[in-house]
Structure formats: C-alpha cells, structure tokens
Amino acid sequence: MKKLSQKLVFIILSLALVCANGFLNVKSTYAAESNNNLQQKFEETMDSVTEIENKEAKAKYRTLTTNLIKKNNLKINTSIIDHNNAKVYKTKNKEYTVYTAQIKSPNTKFHEISNLTVFYDKNNKIKDYLETQVKESSKGTFQISAFLNGKEVFNEITDDEFTTAEANSQNNTGVKPYGVNFGKIADCLGLSFSVAAGLGAVCGTVCVATAGTGCAICIGAYLGFDVSSVTACVVGGVV
Predict the structure, then answer these.
(1) Helical pair 193-209 and 6-21, crossing angle rounded to 10 deg
(2) Worst-scoring range by mean pLDDT, 42-56, 74-88, 179-193?
(3) Could you give the angle at the alpha carbon of 21 between the alpha carbons of 16 and 26, nearest 5°?
(4) Interacting residues of 43 by C-beta distance below 8 A, sequence separation 6+
(5) Percent of all residues in the chain with a pLDDT value above 70, rounded to a whole number
(6) Distance, CA of 239 to CA of 236 (rounded, Å)
(7) Looking at residue 89, what DSSP letter applies?
(8) What is the pLDDT of residue 63?
(9) Residue 128, strand partner residues
(10) Which helix H or strand E contains 30, and what residues bound it?
C-alpha cells in the first residue's frame, strides 16, 4: 500500500480552505462551521487515507461499485465513470474502504478533479458517496456541482472561464511557484480563486452533512487530482 503524501493532501485541502475563507458566496452550512473547527477537521483528515495498489482488491471494489450502479443502488448524475483507472484507499484504522474514479464524458468538458468517491464500511456496505462535478457551464465558465448520496448539495456557476488542468499546465510550463503559494498552485491546476473556494464550500457542506464518515468524505472532492499534476505545480521541495 502506498501512503499519500501528507503534505500533498494538506496543500490540496488548505488550498480550498484558504480560498474559501475569502469567498463570500458559499453555502450557509459551510459558513455555519467556524474556520477553526474546519481547520482542525481538515488536519485530522490529512493523514487518513492510504492507497491500495493490490490489483485483486481494486478489481473487487470496481466490480462492487459498477454492479451497484447497474442496479441503481448507487445513483449517479453523470454519463461516464472511468472505472478502469479507479483507485482504492483505506482510511485510518481501516474503518472504511474508499473507491474513487474520474468522471469523463465525450459531450461535456469536465475538469480532471471531477470524480465519484464511494465509502464502504467493514461489511462492504455503502456508508456515503460523493459525486463531484467541475465542468464547463453553458456560458463557458466553471460549474461546480456536488451530489451527496445521490442528492444535490451544491451547485454554483462561476464567472471564470473554464479550463482543464492539462490545458492550463501546457500554458504555464514556465511557471515556478515559490513555496506554498496557494493562488499560483490553483492557477497551475486550472482552478480559479472562486472555483477553489467553491470546492472548499463543497468540503465544508459534506463535512457537516455526514455524521458517519465525517470530513473524511470531503477528500473525495480532491482525490480526482492526479498526483503528478499537483506535484508539477508545486516546487521548492514542498511535496
């Protein structure tokens, strides 16, 4: 099993948290939580997942998830899930197994962070699942949507022009962010200030709404990032 970089998780979560602190149009459930409480919960979540690389284990949860979708026991709101490249994680104390797969579509432009994340308990029963969609809106800007256990909990369209992390990185090959400059990291990943803040609001919303998995499920909003993409945007030995 491969341990996720603690600093990498911290950077991604903190990116959303820092931006959200200065973003006014967030959901009331997120605003109701104090920044100190969320910061503490994020820090507790930082070191909570370990990637499972065993092929049999990954195949097991891929089959389990796809069967649940076919039977409509796991309700999703998108057309294509990239199960072939899905990842499986264990949470701290092995309380939950986490299955996450990227959302893709030939007809809609999705940012690479878009994903479905399913939390299974020790009996392989669904505890919670989060579908995070960051896609191009009808006016060519970012649209951020989140569905917790099949129900929409967040939907916001920004004024920022849509881009993907891949397209943005090609235009920023010479950018060398200094230290942990969250604004530049967000830009490198193709995430504007308001988009990162929106993801922070998603995380805060699901953190409040899920009593069982708690803030661990908000990691689902960030596991869609390819580790190499994030690493390429962070220099100076931060990751």
Answers:
(1) 100
(2) 179-193
(3) 80
(4) 10
(5) 49
(6) 8
(7) E
(8) 97
(9) 119
(10) helix 28-32
